[in-house]
Write a structure and sequence with these properties.
By secondary structure, the protein is α/β, with parallel strands linked by helices. It folds into 3 domains: 204 residues, Rossmann fold (3-Layer(aba) Sandwich), CATH 3.40.50.12780; 101 residues, 3-Layer(aba) Sandwich (Rossmann fold); 94 residues, GMP Synthetase, Chain A, domain 3 (2-Layer Sandwich). The chain has 12 helices and 21 strands. Strand 4, helix 7 and strand 5 form a beta-alpha-beta unit.
Length: 426
């Protein structure tokens, strides 16, 4: 494990100014272009270019050029075969040499590959353990719920950390006896799994006492965060990790910051009113598969307020979700972004709380699925959304109300999303 990274993550307060962050990034890129880019057949002839002049990347282009971009000489088709075989067998131990290979679908459903060398695995473990290890002098028990295991995640395990993987493709109920026996001190899972565990804890079906609860892999909504915190009696932290790297983590005060010690993250602003942007990532620690000028289709909302923790890394108010899940309503000046916070606020102001909901835009119709709606809820929500549209200067789309919840087609829960136009039964 990288001691320097561990100490930075554990005890460092981050960079105190933007100038220091930018100087750090400039030095990191000088090292990267001198030592790493020449080992990549794709980037070898581009090491003298400015960072912004490098080819714009996304998942499709990265996968198309995977064999030439990676510095390990790994063929994309071979890596894909190993990753798919691991997914099918649920045996995630095979490596290519000493490099671990993982398959990612993300929320888009588009398959991607990631690589991690032993050095990269040690660095990731140092950052995670440094930030979220509760007490250095105690052995920790880590429960990790994820769709797939990987040597990257197992790098958390050491003499002081008992790491237990819980496969999300196995039935949820089957995990509960083993989870109760482990009684983890650190509980890591997607938001929807943490919410299920919180409901079970609140009902008396579990008696866990974690000292850290960490939400990963999905957007953590305020309602889920409140449920989880009530059930376990502690703050829920967030790690915003994509296939492309650890992009943001909560600080010691619980505020989400971009991970600018290890990555440079530029902004492609999609809505000036809110500052909403898609991150453009340059990862100067990822040597096996260089991630440079890579645009993610996630949308982040920045928080302009400086953090009391003293770190100048950009604060993030919230992760909105996928770019193609953003709601855009018409206005006199053009399309206007309707944030998930605005929709959640309208729902939170209803006279009686819902058990759950989904808001799905299909073409010109906004479908609202209300689970546990009392009499009058639909009219109250229609009134609230109309008032919000007037306040924002937008035209309220046609509304269609439904009872219960729609079938979920993806592995990750997205309460507010956009889908193609298809017939929907009431």
């Amino acid at each position: 494990m990288s001691l320097t990274a561990f100490l930075h993550s554990r005890h460092g307060r981050g960079f105190a100014s933007r100038a220091r962050i930018e100087a750090h990034h400039a030095a990191a890129f000088r090292r990267f272009r001198a030592q790493v880019m020449p080992r990549s057949p794709f980037y070898r002839g581009m090491a003298d270019r400015p960072l912004e002049a490098l080819p714009r990347m996304d998942k499709a282009r990265l996968m198309a050029h995977f064999s030439a971009i990676n510095t390990c000489g790994i063929d994309r088709d071979r890596a894909m075969q190993i990753a798919i075989r691991a997914e099918a067998s649920r045996d995630f131990r095979p490596l290519i040499g000493d490099v671990s290979v993982g398959l990612s679908t993300g929320t888009s459903g588009q398959r991607g590959l990631f690589l991690a060398t032993p050095r990269e695995r040690r660095l990731w473990a140092a950052i995670m353990l440094g930030r979220y290890w509760p007490e250095l002098w105690r052995r920790q028990r880590v429960a990790f719920f994820m769709r797939a295991d990987n040597a990257l995640y197992r790098s958390l395990s050491n003499a002081l950390v008992r790491f237990a993987f819980f496969d999300l493709l196995s039935p949820f109920e089957a995990h509960l006896p083993r989870l109760a026996e482990l009684n983890p001190s650190v509980l890591i899972a997607p938001a929807r799994i943490l919410a299920l565990l919180a409901e079970r804890q609140a009902a008396g079906g579990l008696a866990l006492a974690p000292r850290r609860v960490i939400s990963v892999a999905e957007t953590l909504s305020p309602e889920d965060a409140a449920l989880i915190e009530r059930a376990f009696g502690i703050r829920v932290d967030q790690v915003y990790q994509a296939t492309e790297g650890v992009l943001a983590m909560t600080c010691r005060l619980g505020h989400l910051h971009l991970n600018e010690r290890w990555l440079r993250i530029d902004r492609d602003v999609i809505d000036r009113a809110t500052g909403a942007f898609c991150p453009i990532i340059h990862d100067f620690t990822r040597e096996s598969l260089p991630i440079l000028n890579y645009r993610l289709d996630d949308v982040l909302i920045p928080d302009p307020e400086p953090c009391p923790c003293g770190c100048a890394s950009q604060r993030i108010a919230r992760i909105e979700g996928r770019e193609d899940d953003m709601l855009w309503w018409t206005s006199a000046t053009g399309p206007r972004l309707i944030t998930s916070e605005a929709i959640r606020t309208a729902i939170a102001c209803l006279p009686q709380a819902l058990r759950d909901y989904r808001v799905i835009q299909r073409g010109a119709v906004l479908h609202l699925w209300l689970d546990g709606a009392a009499w009058g809820t639909e009219a109250a929500l229609r009134t609230g959304l109309a008032a919000m549209a007037r306040r924002l200067g937008c035209t309220l789309p046609e509304l269609a109300f439904h009872h219960g919840l729609p079938p979920e087609t993806g592995a990750k829960r997205r309460r507010i999303r956009v889908e193609p136009e298809t017939p929907v039964s009431r």
